[in-house]
Fold each of these.
Amino acid sequence: MWSVCKKDLRQFFSGLTGNVAIIVFLLLNGLMLFVFRDSNILDYGYASLENYFSLAPWVLLLLIPAITMRLFADEWRSGTIEILRTSPLSGAQIVGGKYLSALLVVLAALLPTLVYVVTIKTLEAGNASLDTGGIIGSYIGLALLCAAFTAVGTWCSSLTANAIVAFLASAFGCFILYSGFNSLSKLSQFSGGADFYLQMLGIDFHYQSVSKGVLDSRDVLYFASVVLFFLFLTQRRLLKK
């Protein structure tokens, strides 16, 4: 599995995909947090990164599909998947290696954003202070969200040899999982109890829960279930193909 992961990591960073994805992610967040008027945290009046943690999932919803879209699509298109399948690696190891490589790239994009914490800490004045527990919880939530989105993108990439189609399918799938159930729960037909359970099916519900600074085992179990489910589907797709 690690051999597949290292091969894909070299491909990510030897080409434009990994570097451009990380640069675009940091640039978008920087513009929205320090330049654009409506989301500028410098004008917010409080030592808070709430705007960042609200905006980051939407940026990741496009960033992660861009990273995962070629994981299997290029293998199908070029025929190199046959080399992988004849190697002494199981389907689970192949899928796990590719998933891990994409996840490491995404997490590498999150690391530089720790500068935002230092920046706000430096700018805070008076009695204002950062909610350290909330920030740690939010970063854990972002990491779990990245793991789930990456699993969805890995599965979508295994469905087609066209990387663009894989990108669109992955972005749509991540959007439905993140926001679709929450939007569906607001329909009047589901009011009176069913709306709460619909919200629980979405990633946003559990992400917001972890971001409060309380790491609930139910939220961790939810994210682990999503990751394992889509990796299982990817492995089944690989074996079927």
Amino acid sequence: MNKGGYSKYIRPLLYGIDLLMVSFFAYFLLTKSFLDIAFIMLFWIVLSFLISVYAIYRFTKITKIISLFFRQTVLLALLVFTYYYITGIFVPKANIINFFLALLLVITTWRVFLFVFFQKYRIITGSNNVYVVIVGLNQSTKKLASFFDNSPEYGYKFRGFFDNRDSSNISGTIEESYSFILENNIDEVYCSTKELSNEQIKELTEFCERNLKVVKFVADDKELFSKNLELDYYNLTPILSLSKIPLDDPIKDLIKRTFDIVFSISVIVLLLSWLIPIIALLIKIESRGPVFFKQHRYGADFNLFLCYKFRSMTPNKESDKMQASKNDARVTRMGKFIRRTSLDELPQFFNVLYGEMSVVGPRPLLMSHTDDYKDKINKFMIRHNVKPGITGLAQISGYRGNIASDLDMLNRVRYDIFYVENWSLILDINIILQTVMNIFKGEDKAY
């Protein structure tokens, strides 16, 4: 989830500025060939993923920032040496060394300056804050609270302890923390693994997932129930987080968004530009009513948006509550054809272009289904950490169409969560190809 207004755009912007610096120094110190510069920029991009050089957060140490960019520029210089050696293009070694030194000096100075600037910005303006509570009281969590209170440059606002023991430091019981978190718009919940039982940790984690809150663990001396944890240090306090969702990384999110824009524009220009008038005419000939069907659905971060489809039913009052079933009398003859071939979903490429949906992602459910199941199925709300898709992993795995039972929804959500937690561009492309194949083969549940 992205919080803080335009802050989600900062990292992609910085990525672009860094690439401009790389290309600038390459042009003036190494080569005038745009092909060579393109390869050098590609080297930088690949290395940034391998080293995670942009995994810099508000609690990151300045020494780590310097270390990350030093490794990045050293490896880039080695790759440049290798590139010119393999291609046989002569470039003086002194030029490559100068390129490395200039880039290291400028980009490291720039990123450290920016990091310090944001720290000062948070102190002066009091903005870009993350509101936190701690569940469980002991020495470790007291140190963490002290870090939050005495380090305003990191932008954490501590709102209280919650524990089931009596203490003047306590804002309420563990059970009371749930309503406090919701009523006070808390962003992150820090949980002591020493003070809480596994069952309490499980309940708190599920609560945070249902309500799109970040949960982290203060690493005491107790064995944790989850294997997928990442270790960070807030000052000297070790903090464990559930493994991050890939698309929480703004760079990966930018890659997916760029793919969505290119793909949706291609479909709109090459296919929908001539297909919409034909389908619209056939829909209007058969039955009265609008060509397009619009319906509110929950999207990323649980925000509502209008989802577009070609109308495949006669206008009816049950469309917001009841999915189409086999031999549904509401479905028109033209509707049966466009539903069976998935042509009814094509207008959603405009949703993709507007940024409300993605080409691939968890399918947006009826609002009534979401309201019914969000408290029934563990981790259900994780599917709302990303944009909904025109197609998805669940759909190509046999779980499309009508949801006839709780088991149907459970299986669909399992595939959705796997997709969210394991996203890659290759996975998206595979899902798209499989979707196209399924359209031509036909599907039993396409009605």
Amino acid sequence: MRACRPRNRDRVCEHGHPVGCHARHEPGDERLGQPICGDCYDYVGAVLWQAHAGALWHRFTLEVRRTLASEAGLSRREFAKRVRVSFAKVAEYQRRGLVHFHAIVRLDGPDGSSEIPPDWADHDLLTRAIPPAVQRVTVTSPPSDLGRWDLIWGDQLDIRPILLDQTADGLSERAVAGYIAKYATKGAEASGTVDHRLSCPACGGRGRLRLMASCGRCHGTGLKPGLHLDALPVTAHARRMIRTCWELGARPEFTALWLRPWSHMLGFRGHFSSKSRRYSTTLGDLRQVRATHRATKARERNGLPLLGDETTLVLGHWRFAGSGYSPGEAIMAEHIRQKVATARKIATEREDG
């Protein structure tokens, strides 16, 4: 006879909680994203992964270039002469408080998006190169008596082509623009945390100033005056991650991660959106176009002629501010005059003596 093994739904962890959830939850259920057993959840590993997510993405961008060159049968130097790899990514918070990235990877000619890449640099090449590059990327956490974590990407990887034809099998460029706009408006508060910093602005959460003196604003707690971690209007899971950020941020080996100033982001301190240099136009160019547009509209409303490319218009308004010292400056000047006169008198008496 064979002994009957317990079903997975009947198994429990060492703390007496079930190892899995078999219930069906509504989209707005507050239990979504919360760990079944908080004592089994690796909060230290989760916070450290958040803090290194930006470095993990950077290493992926380097590794995928190496893999693309290998798949194309070229050296990295020769591949870079023929193809430029461009990236754009947006970070989105999951309900469990960890981020995942939505990224666009594009192959351009060597001069950027204005040039078409070779025929062999297509979607199939990216599909072959991205999965192994994702699997090879690893970031190791700083050495600590708590242990060291090898931080890697997860198993979920969804690669889809971006097509100009909306009827084809893939994502249209309009859908991609909608996704980016959607994720750009979602912050960390979607995972149950707060949308403002918790650390003291004077000491940056350290609780002390540079001269090792206790911070007079937060009185050594590192928190903003009037705040308390246990009183934050957040979920229990988010509070546990915030407290883990706060505790790890006090350790010297994790000082460079700035976990306390970024505890409200659950440890993630990267940009929610970033792109490679030649992926598209720069933000500076966009700001200049908006400034020029506003200036042109203002001149049209006021009936002023449009400025030519070689015309420079300087507007200045002068008004009389006053002369001499202000009352406060007069007091300081008189005090300085008296000190100088006294010093000269003492020097004269010494010479006479």
Amino acid sequence: MSGLLGTDKPLFAAHDAALVDLDGVVYRGPQAIPTAPAGLDAAREAGMSIVFVTNNASREPGTVADHLTVLGMPTQTHEVLTAAQAVSRMVAEELPAGSTILVVGGPGLRTALTEVGMTLVESADPTPDAVVQGFHPDVSWKDMAEASYAITAGARFFASNRDLTIPNDRGTAPGNGALVNVVVTATGVQPPSAGKPAPEMFRLAAAQAGAQRPMVIGDRLDTDLMGGNAAGFPGLLVLTGVNDGRDALLAPAGMRPSYIGRDLGCLAHPHPAPERDGDGWRVRNAFARVTAAQLEVSGDGELDRLRAACAATWEAADAGIAVNVEGVTGIAVAS
């Protein structure tokens, strides 16, 4: 099996719900990705449910929904699921109501923890029951030091997510995982994480949508696609954010997408599956094979070339061959 799926009808007809990442998929920084509003609108018009699933714990769901609406993608609060909500549910399963929590993060995380009955505190003295860390751009050294003091004194440690980077309108910036690692370095304690790539967020989102045939949409192999695979849901990699075609070629089995598209506009398109053709794989006019550990790709269509190349490369990699993909062009690699 190539790992890629195919459908001769649009993706929004093949799946009843899309569990959609935000950063790098719907928007980059404060601006919508140009094709996102129309792509999502077409999917909704076709009857597809949309739930936005984000590892960003800094904002409340209503704030996220309002932001998306302003960007031309009308969204209701119940259509947003954040890592703050997911980690708060994790904390509520581990600790009794009323437990004291030192929050390192923004208002979205504070609200979510309050809603599950936790008591928020502002200091490591006296020692709180737990520290919960989520991304916020104003998190400071002082915040991380206070968290370190509490954890060293015996507080439990939870993280909303472990994304090392986040894309924005200026490029790539440190994510919550990078900030969590500062506290890990100071304490030696590794926190459990509720966000992607853990599968629970996707399962919660699918249940929230009442979905029978959900799909995951993301720009990151190590969070969105890995988490979707862990949940048992097909995943669409869009090439508008962190990972590009070369990354897809080199993805380990647990991170591989089921579909690959340029952007959210591909929800309205059929997605041809690679088919065996002699010693290689074909997608329409594109053909790829691995010869003496070297990937060879020919034919038309950048995305079709990439799909065929993924089929050939993944097959060889799974057989223990270290495939050389250098020098291969026309496979949707970011410049």
